[in-house]
């Protein structure tokens, strides 16, 4: 790019109408990042908070995050799920410090303001003052009303055992938010079976949060970056595949069916990791058993904008929660699960295949690393831009993987919402 | 429950040799600390304490540990880094098979410091080993090593063995 005289843009504007050349400043500016929190995480969108199976009993709660706002997902005595903000109505304290537990109510230790599991303020110590030598000292003003000082309550939607919440009570219904196409892939995994949580993995990735969404909207990289995939024939550019989006291009699904192997010179030439005869020493790492609910595809990776990725990679299923903290960092929390009717063998298989994923995974560790290196490049010369032009300039569903169309789709949406 | 000093000395050597091997970047040495059906598991403390089975890595045999070595050496793109294990004195929990022990259950605290080429040295992973160690004709070997780590929020990624 020769026309760019400055490294730090003075008046950054996105050149042209398209979304195939993303300015580096989209990843580096604090002002844009705060707007993203407001417009994507705190309004107009449903964000992932957890799984119903994490809080099976009345009083069970789990602390989690939407954007940068700490929230509590809790099952009340009626069995309903509430999500409330973890900020005391009195002095603003982030009062809930445990990560999970069981409670009859919530209270803030600072002045012991007490809240129901629905987030309603129930009591304030010394509200009527303290009686001393026949006279009442202090107390809240007579017009103080408990019902005006509850915790911030979020709108909650559950589907198939997954819990979403929104600070925006005018947000469209979850089903409309996902749209019919993405809903179909959502329901494929979460079809009403009871889920069984297998555990958590957490990593702090020093890169802009959007890069994680892009990573799972990018079918161009897996066969190239993830040498382990290609070495053992799990991902190839000639796998049967589809790319699908919602009508706004914000969510997407990458659907693929593992090929039958064999050498296809077009695909493996230039992919230096392809090894026709390579085998793992312990076959359990790749002991893949098709499950009826797959209905064909061996992997469907669904990005729900802005907060979560739903993973089905062969027998490994997980949610991956994006929790941004600043323009250049996010926490990535993986919740691996199985299903209540899994046999012991299937549970073991899911646990062993989990070696491929997560912060140490044979495959996924690479993603965190390249996101860090991308961010370093962006910070170095924010006036520059990426070139997301594999497969052309346009945006649309696809019957192959040799395209970056999903990333272009996401930035078309981003530009619209952000006014950039 | 006592073991003779010779056996305790062998146990100390196992811990220090393991640390030296995984800090040396000579990853091929790592699987040799395990018996053939030996297991290596690296698990966040939250999963362990909640009785959740998921590990960060669950390598269920020496063959699978070798597969990990292949991944580390050949397939995983990552920032290169140095690592340094500081391992506490092992605490013997129980012993089977007399004073020269054929099975030892022991634990030891560890801290792993990571140093990237252009960065400072930082505490990368801290936790403790829960081990089952068995006597073999080649000396003491790990039947199982479970690393339970406090550093649940991993600084991006873990590539090399803990």
From TrEMBL, chain A:
Keywords: 2Fe-2S, Iron, Iron-sulfur, Metal-binding, NAD, Oxidoreductase. The keyword Iron-sulfur applies. Pfam families: Rieske, Ring_hydroxyl_A. Its cofactor is Fe cation. It comes from the Bacteria. InterPro entries: AhdA1c-like_alpha_C, ARHD_Rieske_2Fe_2S, Rieske_2Fe-2S, Rieske_2Fe-2S_sf, Ring_hydroxy_dOase_asu_C_dom, Rng_hydr_dOase-A. Residues 46-165 form the Rieske domain. PROSITE patterns: RIESKE, RING_HYDROXYL_ALPHA. Belongs to the bacterial ring-hydroxylating dioxygenase alpha subunit family. This is Rieske 2Fe-2S domain-containing protein.
From TrEMBL, chain B:
InterPro entries: NTF2-like_dom_sf, Rng_hydr_dOase-bsu, SnoaL-like. Pfam families: SnoaL_4 (PF13577). Keywords: Oxidoreductase. It comes from the Bacteria. Signal peptide: none annotated. Residues 10-145 form the SnoaL-like domain. Belongs to the bacterial ring-hydroxylating dioxygenase beta subunit family. This is Salicylate hydroxylase. It comes from Aromatoleum diolicum.
